[in-house]
Write a structure and sequence with these properties.
With 232 residues, this protein is an alpha/beta fold. The protein has a single domain, classed as Aldolase class I (TIM Barrel), CATH 3.20.20.70. Helix content is 36%, strand content 18%. The protein contains 7 helices and 8 strands, in the order βαβαβαβαββαβαβα. Strands 1-8-7-6-5-4-3-2 form an 8-stranded parallel sheet. Helix 5 runs parallel beside helix 6.
Length: 232
């Protein structure tokens, strides 16, 4: 399973160092949580910080735009070096046009929706995107607990993507740690956004990433044991 650490919970006094540590530990993307204090009740950072992150890593960066009128900032984030922009269906009333705008800018397209927004609202857009993000907490704050009902939503979205033969990634964001990573992977997720499970005061970034990888691998081993036991 791919890992995309969110710098939201990183130590900004050592941001460059922590990003380099994450890259050295073998993560796959760097995730940027962009909050405007309007669509969500919090404010984070903008394109200037994204550009600073870009200078400290060779990994691709994705920006999750938790903001109203996100199209106003597409060009700024592209210039900052972001490879993929993820927009909320709730803030994009003309979603087809938004997707086409991102395509014309040669950016990867991600779409997402809040935990209680029906999946059907993005179903017709699925053939047009590179990634679907399922929020497994309410957007706006880090460190929240995984919403148990999210597992069914992940599985349902996996079925929707498989039904149309989509190669889009299925990403999950919120409350992902060593206790929940197997659950979301088994439900069909291919990328996990991880925040405090990687950037924390208890373990180094390398140790945290290793523990996440080990937890996912242990699930695979347990599943293999179950299959062998059922065949005997």
């Amino acid at each position: 399973m791919k890992l995309s650490p969110s710098i939201y919970t990183a130590d900004f006094g050592r941001l460059g160092e922590q990003i380099r540590d994450a890259e050295a530990a073998g993560v796959d993307w760097i995730h940027l949580d962009i909050m405007d204090g309007h669509f969500v009740p919090n404010i984070t950072f903008g394109p200037l910080i994204a550009a600073a992150v870009r200078r400290h890593t060779r990994l691709p960066c994705e920006a999750h735009l938790m903001m109203t009128e996100p199209e106003r900032y597409f060009e700024a984030f592209k210039q900052a070096g972001v490879s993929r922009l993820i927009v909320h269906v709730e803030t994009c009333p003309h979603l087809y046009s938004t997707i086409q705008q991102l395509r014309q800018m040669d950016l990867q397209v991600g779409i997402t929706l809040n935990p209680l927004t029906p999946l059907s609202l993005i179903e017709e857009a699925l053939p047009l995107v590179d990634l679907v993000l399922i929020m497994t907490v309410e957007p706006g704050f880090g460190g929240q607990k995984y919403i148990p009902a999210s597992t069914q939503r992940i599985a349902a979205m996996r079925r929707m993507l498989d039904r149309i033969g989509s190669a889009a990634e299925l990403e999950v964001d919120g409350g992902i740690n060593i206790h929940t990573i197997c659950e979301v992977r088994d439900a069909g997720a291919s990328i996990a956004v991880v925040g405090s499970a990687v950037f924390n005061d208890k373990y180094s970034v390398a140790e945290s990433v290793k523990m996440l990888r080990a937890a996912a691998q242990q699930c695979l081993a347990d599943e293999a044991d179950e299959v062998r036991a059922s065949d005997e």
